Amino acid sequence: MKASIRKLAVWVEETHREMGREIAPPTRKAVAVAVIENPFAGRYVEDLSDLMEIGAELGDLLGRRAVAALGIAPAEAQSYGKAAMVGENGELEHAAAILHPKLGAPLRAAVEKGAALVPSSKKMGGPGQDLDVPLGHKDAAYVRSHFDGVEVRMNDAPRANEILVAVAVTDSGRPLPRVGGLTHEDAEGKDGLR
Asked: Is the entire prediction scored with pTM above 0.70?
């Protein structure tokens, strides 16, 4: 593995009640996080292909871990998202190199299909800073009930020469969705939109 991983973490957030109403079954979001060494911290490097390869490795590792945390078959995953936060000696392009060229394909394999774009965010930050991971339906971008997000935070990451990379997977949309639009059940997933 090209990634030098300092720490891995996985957790599941479940919502059982919202606005005094029971959510049955509960909505669930799993997040898998890797804290890795930034091989280009503190210097400008033109060729970021090593970070792109690390992105592919992490898309597979974190995607599979998030699905396993939910205890579901890959086909049962409904939405996904990705995010990265570089420490102070990194640059946003380092996060982009991990997230965009190659992380998506192995994540899609981990959730079976994934016709829609994987929502993403990137930022610079330090230990204990929050990172928002946007979520969207994995097969149909127009499924409004799955426009969501999940917040992650590691008390000791990212350090100055690190990158925190997060992948989120859900087995449901938001609790109590009621803003209309295409439903999960009606999504075809042929063009990534509907």
From this structure: yes
